[in-house]
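Final paragraph of the annual report: two paired records, presented back to back.
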Amino acid sequence: MKTKRPASLKEHIHTILYGTPEEKAQLHRTFFHVADTPDFMKEKGIKGEYFSIRYGIISRHLGKDTDHALNEKDWYNLCNEIINPFAIAHYGNGFRLFTNVKVNGLFTAIGVNVNKPGKDFAVNSIMTAFGYAGIPSNEVFFYVNKNLTPEQAALLEGLNSPQYPTEQGS
């Protein structure tokens, strides 16, 4: 039995960011579908059927700082790019995906946890999305696209080569 997907983030991001207080109040407890999870990510442990984000995750970061200042176009692009990250790392009990979307000139990192809202049904819940200037030396990647741009490679450059997977993605 397939579970009904939440509303589309692309269709609601304008209201989330710029709607009236009344319009936003109607979305207060809403989860939004961001993108379907590609098979290569499921094989690597990011096994939810799709990526979702809760209204509160977006709203609590609004105006927080420049690194979290994703505008409407950034969120729209993130919905397209989340399925094609250039690197993925374990982070705590979840994952961090590095995408080609830029916020204030910085690549966007997306924190994701795999949640199980129903019996045998997993969803990749986005917990944060922010522009990322540098990567901590303890970040452990299990996927790095083999076709990195020079700018992406420079971001990952500070890492020790043993941290890179022996078999990189395509």
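The closing record of the year follows.
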Amino acid sequence: MDRAVQQQYVFGAILLLANKLQVWGDDLLDNLTVKQWFLLMFISQMNTTEPTVHQIAEYTGTSRQNTKKMLEHLHEQGFVAINPSSADGRALSVKLTLKTGAYFRQNAGIALTAVSELFTGLPDADLRGAANTADHLLAVLGNPPLNLSSLESSQGG
């Protein structure tokens, strides 16, 4: 298979996987979609305790409008507090609530087990290659680097 065909295959496979992973993830946890859970996880990994909606959107590589809509829904459910920013009255700051911390603790095992099962049988070298490929694609698309070391330390890795 030539390089162009492989690139097209990988691109299509990523899109297909994104859809399948969303459906799979939505069935894992109660009360949150996988995208909502992912957004909360990203906020928890940010280097500020009360990021703005704009900062969160930039960090996650999504639009401000989509981020705000998801945050408003999470606010209605009690997972985040949204208030005017003390630094800029035009901006909205976001803070994770105690409910979010409790939710993470209660569901950590479910998420870790399910994700581990996804990668069962995949050799470590292949997993590292997939991680490197994801890092490369994210960088090309302009996403800030993911903070893998903080994820590893928060999960005991």
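The CA atoms of residues 73 and 79 lie 9 Å apart. This concludes the annual technical report; the extension proposal builds directly on these records.
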